[in-house]
Structures are given as C-alpha cells and as structure tokens.
Design goal:
heterodimer, A: mainly alpha, two-stranded parallel sheet, 17 helices, globular, B: alpha+beta, Alpha-Beta Plaits, 2 domains, two-stranded antiparallel ribbon, 9 strands
Chain lengths: 419, 311
C-alpha cells in the first residue's frame, strides 16, 4: 500500500470522488484501488501469508470441533471445565476491550474532545474485543445454538453468568450503535449518523453501567469457586472490583498498543490529525492507566490483608503472585511513570505492552494456572491452543479489514483531493 | 378515565422496574433458609464399607450408563492414579465411584463419592438458565433440555461432582447423580446404590433423622468414630452425610470447605448490581453536566486549546 500511495494512488477517504461523483460500493471495498492493484498489494503483504497459513490449519480444526465435539479438541477435563478458550478468549479479551467505555466516557461525558482522534479506535477496539469474546464462547459452549436460552427461554437471574450474558449482549448492541456512526459515514447514510449522534450520551452512560457490572461479574464468576482458585487470587469481597479496576489500565493500554501497531504497519491510513495527536494522547492515556494501576496495586494488597493471607506469600504460589504483581503492576507502573515524567511516548508504549501482558497473566492465573492449585496442572490440548490462536488471528484480520475502510484512523472528507 | 389508565400504567412500569432491579436480590434472601424440612438424605458409615463396588454396579444399571472398561468386581481400579496422584472421580459414565484410601497405621478406608445433594447447591445458584432444581425430597436434579453447556456448575461445585459429556458433538450435557429421582425417590423409594449395599453402609431417611442417628452412633462408640458428621454443616449442609473412623482429610475429603453456602460469597457482588443500575445513570449524567457546563461542545473536535490541561 505504501508503494501504491507513493506512485500517486489515493485511497478512498471521502464522501465524494475528486470528480464529484459518488463512490460505488465495490470501489469502497477495494479502498479506491482497482481490482488488480488490490490483489497485488494483498499478495505482496507478508502478513497475509502468515494469516493464510494459520487459517489453513486452524479453520479446519474449528470445523472439526463442531463435527466431533469438544472432546476431540480439548482434554475434556471435568476438573478444568474452563480451558484456554475461555481463560484467554473470554477472561482476557473482555478486559482488553474496556477501552470503548473508557474513551467514550472521557470524550462524550467529560467533554475531553482532545481525546477525540483516538475515540473511534477505542470504540472499535471495544466492539471487536467483545464480539470475539463471544466467538470464543460460541466455540467453547457445549451447545452454542442454545446461547439465547438465558435471554428468552429459561432464566437464572440469581446467577452471575446470567448477568454477564445479558450485559455482554446489551453492551455489544450499544457498541454496535457507537461504532455505527463510522459505518454510516462510510456508506453515506447521513440520517442514521445524525440519529445515533443524538443518543450519544445515553449510549455512553449505558456503556459505563454495563461495563462496571460485567467486568466485575467476570471476577465474581470465580467467587463461586473458593478453594479452587488460590486464596491469593480469590477474594469474595473484592474480586469484582479487582477485575473492574484492572480492566481500566487494560483497556487504555490496549488502545496504546493497537495505535502503536497501526502507526507502524498502516500509517497510510492514518490522517494528520491522528498522527500529530498520537504522542500527546498516548501520554495522556498512560496517565490514566498509571492511576488505574496504582489503585489496583493497593486493592490487591487490601484483599490479602482483608482475608489475612500474608502467610501464603511465603509459599511458591506466593512468589508467583508477587511475580505477577511485580511484573504486571509495579514494573508497568514504573515504566509508565518514567515515560510520563519524561514526556516520552515511546517509553509509555513499552509500559502499555507490559501492562497488557500483566493483565493477561492475571486472568490466566485466575482462570487456569492457579485454578485447582491443590489438584494438578492442566496443560491445554494442542488443538485447543491452535483454535485459540486462529480465532485471535481472525480477530486481527477483521480489525485490519475495518481499519482499512471505515473512518476510524482518519476523518471523512466531503470530497476527495484532486489528482 | 384516561388519568387512571395513565397512573396504572406508570405504577405498572415502576413495579416492573423494581421487580427487575430486585431480581438478583430475591434469591440472596432465600439463601438463608435451612433447606426443605422433610428432605431425604443418606448417611454413609464408612467404617462398614469394604469396597465391593456393588453400589457402582447398581447405579450403572439404574441410570442405564455405559459398561465400564473394567468390571465392577475388579479391585485394581483402586490402584489407578490420574495426573500423578488423583484418584477416580465421577464421570459422564459413572455417577458414583468408590475409592480406597490408605491410612498409615490402620486398615485402608473406602469412600463412596456421588453428588452430595447440597441444601443450597452451588451448581444451582451458578446456572444461568436455571436448569437445576432442589426438590422437596432433597434431590438436586437438572433439566438437560435447557443446558447450554457453559459448565459453570462444574466450576462452582465444591465437591467436583458434575461431569460433562464432552464426547457428544450435538447434545453434550451435564451428567451427575440425581438421587434416583425419576425412577425411585419421587415415589418414595430407596435409591439403587443404598438398596444394593450388602454391608448396610448406607441408611436412607429424612436428613434430620439421619443427623440424630449419626450423632447417636458417635456418642455410643466414641472410640470408633471421629466426632464429626461430614455434610452436617459443610457449604450449608448436604443431604448425604458421612461418618468416618479416620480424620476426614485422610479419606480424601475436603475439610477446608466453608460452613456457609457458596452463594453467600457471591452476595457481596449481587448486592451492588441493583445499586449500580440505579445510581450510575444520574451520577454520570451529572458528571457530564458538571464537566461540560459552559464549554463549547458538539461535533467540533478541534479543541487544540485544551492541550494545556494535559501536562
């Protein structure tokens, strides 16, 4: 794509073409390139070959799972009913997607329009993360076609999972509405855009409510398993607030990570507004993340004190817990603070990657690694690992597909520039 | 007329809203019940068990379960180890299993494992389609027609009982002991395993009577039994109760379980749900008004002058 732009090709980025005509749908899908140009640039891109390789192995495995059942691709563990598919797919994807409600709140509710250049990326990150968490869930559920049952057929309102199900479903529709403004712009449906913009505040507030509850609820799910989750990772009083508070730096840092990757891999799609504001916004986001992390640090120790679990810290699991906190919270916080203090966005970016890995570690620890700590250690089946990786790369491919087209990283112009 | 209609409509709306907001709360208060007063149970006296596995065979026949790899009179299953040290557990093909535990300095003990049919079952409270039901007879049964397969009940069960038929591609469901509810308990009959036992290990009766029997036995034979009835208080009490001659942890029991039902741990969270739903809208709309009052806002996003707030 870089080469094409150098040779004078202009990607689709406006309502009208330079000559005043409207773009056709096909032209929009091909980014304003000719079919030949599009195919050639797709073949040149080495990342596409990696995707092809992963999909060639992974997608048949997903089909295999649906024909022969979960038993064919997992260890069918009765002791570890939730494996990597949920441990990563649900419990990691959801906190990393908290960016949608965070940035929506900052821009729309608090009127911080200085964050606006990244708002749509944050919203999209939220939408896709949730959507793919549901995809992971569909692959992992025994009978995915029954997923609507808790919505319409058989209610278990006292269950935490009932709340998770309802809230993720509602929040997904809220996020679809939030992101739809970009889509309406792209297809040129102005009335739809204006209609949704009017409801922005309502949508944003419902986003906060739903996010507070289901981010917390994911933590509360583990409160059902005292004795299975290691006491250091378990807190009946604070589990939900641990998960909720840590989702804040997770979501913010995920936006920093994604924007960094996007900046380095698809710079052609970013407009000047995005590029010139990125460093400033990165540091501002890092500040938010640092505040979230320090709060999280305190409430993690508060929980240890509340349940008087200090003695566990001297055990092997305790060292592992300290390592998680040391890497994912203390180190992340130190790097972020250093970056903020020196006004250096690149250091903040490193801190953001550490934070994201720290959160991944925490969720995997709770769901998988320290789960059943006094039984045995479950190592996921190799097919389960491949399926997890495949779905994650479908997520990346979808992400890229949308970023290439919709006005997320760039603002739509009324009319394209002349040749 | 129209006024009354409108008022009724509003009242209905408020009541409906309140009902929705209260829904998670209702169960929380009900959780303090002591269970059904006339619920049945089984007292297992492990001092009498010789590990013949007749109960396993009876269960297999009663529930039409698949034939096991090793016949029921094969004692070598007691030496099987899983994942290094784990002993057998309930599976989709065996709703009850008997394990042998070697006790230093005394005869080995045998323990029968099956669903303990909790008074306040964690599986039930964790199920988002309400598939589980605690019947007045004491059984914890489930409706596999609504089971989505989330396996949250397997996470929640403190005794690691529910199994899942992973091998089925199109109709995998939860599998566990249902106290022979459909075929026996409903008609007031004795469960298959209890009936089959040649050693009279198990007594079937009302839970409250069984507790008396259990404590009587402990009182009459203080040297024979450990002074504890497992299941009397564990996770809020279970319909199945155990007596043992050795400390329960030596017979593979989890002795670290809390006395309160598992759902009590989740109440803290369930209680904040209606609060967040009720408070957040006003709180955050308020923040919005406070934050944007007097500022230009709208779709004009080029507020470069706000950069000063950043550093």
């Amino acid at each position: 794509m870089k080469n094409l732009i150098k040779s004078g090709v202009k990607p689709h980025d406006a309502t009208m073409r330079a000559d005043g005509k409207k773009w056709t749908f096909m032209e929009k899908m091909l980014l304003g390139l000719s079919l030949d140009q599009y195919i050639q640039q797709a073949l040149r891109n080495k990342f596409n070959w990696l995707l092809a390789l992963i999909f060639a192995i992974g997608i048949p495995l997903i089909i295999y799972r649906f024909i022969f059942g979960l038993g064919a691709v997992t260890h069918s563990s009765y002791d570890y009913p939730w494996g990597l598919l949920l441990g990563f797919g649900l419990f990691c994807m959801v906190p990393l997607s908290a960016s949608g409600f965070m940035m929506g709140t900052a821009v729309e509710l608090f009127g911080r329009h200085d964050f606006a250049p990244i708002e749509r990326l944050a919203l999209l990150n939220g939408l896709l993360g949730y959507f793919f968490a549901v995809v992971f869930l569909l692959v992992d559920l025994g009978q995915p076609w029954r997923l609507p049952y808790p919505m319409v057929y058989s209610f278990g309102p006292a269950a935490v999972l009932f709340l998770v199900g309802w809230h993720v479903a509602t929040y997904l529709s809220v996020q679809v509405a939030e992101v739809s403004t970009a889509f309406f712009e792209w297809i040129g449906f102005k009335r739809g855009y204006e209609f949704i913009r009017k409801g922005t505040i309502g949508l944003t507030v419902s986003g906060i409510i739903l996010s507070t509850l289901h981010q917390g609820a994911l933590g509360a799910l583990f409160v059902y398993a005292p004795g299975k989750v290691h006491p250091l990772w378990y807190s009946s009083a604070f589990q939900w607030i641990h998960f909720f508070v840590s989702s804040i730096p997770a979501g913010l840092c995920m936006v920093i990570c994604v924007s960094t990757i996007v900046y380095h891999t698809m710079k052609w799609r970013c407009d000047d507004r995005f590029i010139s504001n990125l460093d400033r916004i990165t540091i501002a986001l890092a500040k938010g993340a640092a505040m979230g992390l320090i709060t999280y640090f305190f409430i993690k120790f508060l929980a240890v004190a509340h349940d008087n679990e200090w003695a566990y810290l001297a055990t092997g699991w305790g060292l592992w817990w300290l390592a998680e906190i040391g890497f994912g919270v203390v180190l992340a916080l130190a790097v972020l603070s250093f970056g903020i203090h020196n006004n250096n966005a690149n250091i903040c970016r490193i801190g953001a990657f550490i934070t994201v890995f720290g959160i991944l570690l925490n969720r995997l620890n709770t769901a998988l690694i320290t789960f059943n700590w006094n039984l045995y250690q479950e190592i996921p089946h190799v097919f389960e690992v491949i399926i997890t990786i495949t779905i994650f790369f479908i997520y990346i491919a979808t992400y890229r597909f949308i970023l290439n087209r919709l006005p997320i990283l760039y603002q739509f112009k009324a009319r394209a520039d002349g040749q | 007329m129209s006024k009354i209609t409108r008022r009724r409509f509003l009242a209905g709306g408020v009541a409906g809203g309140a009902a929705i907001a209260m829904a998670p709360g209702k169960k929380v208060f009900a959780a303090n019940l002591d269970g059904f007063p006339n619920g049945m149970g089984v007292l297992v006296d492990m001092t009498r068990c010789v590990g013949c596995r007749t109960c396993e065979a009876a269960c297999n026949k009663e529930q039409n379960l698949p034939e096991p790899e090793k016949p029921f009179d094969d004692a070598s299953v007691f030496d099987e180890g899983y994942h290094g040290h784990e002993q057998r557990r309930t599976t989709e093909g065996a709703y009850t299993v008997v394990n042998r535990y070697d006790v230093p300095g005394s005869e080995p003990v045998y323990r029968k494992i099956q669903c303990n049919h909790c008074n306040e079952p964690a599986c039930l409270t964790s199920c988002f389609v309400n598939a589980y039901k605690k019947t007045p007879e004491g059984a914890v049964i489930y409706d596999d027609k609504v089971c989505v397969g989330c396996r949250n009940c397997m996470i929640a069960c403190p005794f690691n009982i529910p199994a899942y038929s992973y091998s089925s591609a199109f109709n995998p469901i939860i599998k566990k002991c249902i106290f022979c509810y459909d075929t026996r308990l409903k008609q007031g009959h004795i469960p298959a395993c209890v009936e089959s036992c040649p050693q009279q290990v198990m007594v079937f009766g009302k839970r409250k009577d069984l507790l008396k029997i259990a404590h009587d036995r402990i009182r009459k034979h203080p040297g024979k039994y450990v002074d504890h009835v497992y299941g009397e208080h564990e996770v809020g009490g279970t319909s199945w109760l155990y007596l043992s001659s050795v400390p329960f942890e030596q017979a593979g029991f989890n002795v670290t379980l809390q006395k309160e039902p598992i759902i009590n741990n989740v109440k803290d969270f369930l209680a904040i749900v209606p609060m967040v739903l009720a408070i957040w809208p006003a709180l955050f709309t308020g923040f919005h008004l406070l934050a944007t009052k007097g500022k230009k806002h709208g779709d004009d996003h080029s507020h470069d002058q706000q950069e000063g707030h950043e550093s």
